[in-house]
Design goal:
Layout lengths: L15 E8 L35 E4 L6 H10 L4 E5 L16 E4 L1 H11 L6 E4 L41 E5 L2 E6 L2 H18 L5 H10 L17 H4 L6 H5 L3 E2 L4 H7 L23 E10 L5 E4 L8 E6 L2 E4 L4 E10 L12
Parallel strand pairs: 1-2, 2-3, 3-4
Antiparallel strand pairs: 1-5, 6-7, 8-9, 9-13, 10-12, 11-13
Helix pairs in contact: 3-4
Length: 354
């Protein structure tokens, strides 16, 4: 049968093939039939995959679940296999492939469905796992994995969360007992953001914590951000203002400051109103006909600067800013009002503008 087009997967290591490719569901484990679901969750008899159709060791497709992928790859290797393809249950892919014992890759659910269907038809299937390669492309860095926390803010919807995104997926990291591995999660993204703030504080020691935060948020890169499918553009509930970019944050021209006292007063647990905080983001969960926000900025530059507002409003919403342009001497402040007017946007839906 006609094979599917080339499938992109995630893996680190050498390639393998051309070689036979089979699905684990077609082979019994030990005891018999305990691997019929294709999850590769138990050992296979010796040489099960060592010489498929006289063409040598096979690449074996395993379904997700029950045990770790590293153990599954060991089972395949011990049974004579030469490579492994791990199917993910969703569009999410993430790292950990340094632990594989033979050439392998993880593929997304839609690609897994194509491969699964192909292997179920005909016979004598052949495939090649290409060796991993390194590429540098800024557009590959801003895809949001399914596991990332998202908005809206469940307790304070008038404050957008997240603020920004930071690298937290397939991060090369030092680990005890090994030279390095791949990791992911908040435990990687949070230190990256904290480190960015520390670098900014060193370069701009006179800035308050709120000003540092506003510099990070207001200069974040939003251009390439997509949802987990790598196609659909991300929205602020996925990425906040975008990816942290320290060089621009250090040179931010306008800063939003806020006092500790005002944060305390705005605490909703004390009947405060967080919507009044002087943040670089704006949100309103109950905007009926029209809503407004007032913000105050200061000029962080060493010279007089001039700014003009650039508005990107969604369909059904009109946005205005007053004043729409202004000039400030170093350290001077300017307040402005942002007005959102509903002009046909669907009731009960979130709308995003910039």
């Amino acid at each position: 049968t006609t094979p599917p087009a080339d499938i992109r997967g995630e893996g680190i290591g050498d390639g393998f093939g051309p070689a036979p490719i089979v699905h684990a569901r077609d082979y019994d484990g030990i005891p018999a039939n305990n691997s019929a679901d294709g999850k590769c969750a138990s050992p296979f008899p010796a040489n099960t995959f060592s010489n498929i159709n006289g063409n040598g060791p096979a690449i074996v497709m395993c379904e997700d679940g029950l045990i770790g992928s590293d153990v599954k790859s060991n089972y395949i290797m011990d049974a004579g296999g030469g490579g492994v393809v791990m199917a993910r249950p969703s569009l999410l892919m993430y790292g950990g492939l340094f632990e594989y014992s033979l050439p392998g890759m993880r593929i997304q659910s839609d690609d897994a469905a194509l491969l699964r269907t192909w292997l179920a038809s005909g016979s004598g299937h052949m495939a090649t796992i290409s060796g991993s390669s390194v590429s540098y492309d800024i557009e590959n860095g801003d895809h949001i994995i399914n596991a990332s926390s998202r908005g809206p803010n469940p307790t304070v919807p008038s404050v957008i969360r997240p603020d920004v995104i930071a690298p937290g997926w397939v991060i090369v990291s030092a680990v005890e007992g090994n030279e390095y591995t791949l990791g992911l999660g908040t435990s990687f993204a949070s230190p990256a953001a904290a480190g960015a703030a520390a670098l900014i504080q060193v370069e701009r020691p006179g800035w308050s914590a709120a000003e540092v935060q506003s510099a990070i948020v207001s200069t974040a890169i939003y251009t390439y951000a997509t949802k987990a499918d790598w196609v659909t553009p991300a929205d602020p509930f996925d990425v906040g203002a975008g990816r942290v970019y320290v060089a621009d944050a250090i040179n931010a021209g306008l800063l939003f400051d806020e006092s500790v006292a005002n944060f305390m007063t705005a605490d909703p647990a004390r009947n405060g109103d967080p919507e009044q905080l002087n943040l670089a983001t704006l949100a309103q969960a109950d905007c009926v006909a029209q809503c407004q926000w007032v913000r105050t900025v200061s000029n962080a530059l060493a010279t007089t600067g001039s700014w003009t507002v650039d508005i990107h409003a969604p369909a059904g919403i009109s946005l205005t800013v007053s004043p729409s342009s202004f000039s400030l001497a170093p350290g001077a402040t300017q307040s402005f009002t942002v007005t959102a007017t509903i002009n046909g946007a669907a009731e009960g839906s979130w709308q995003f503008g910039r």
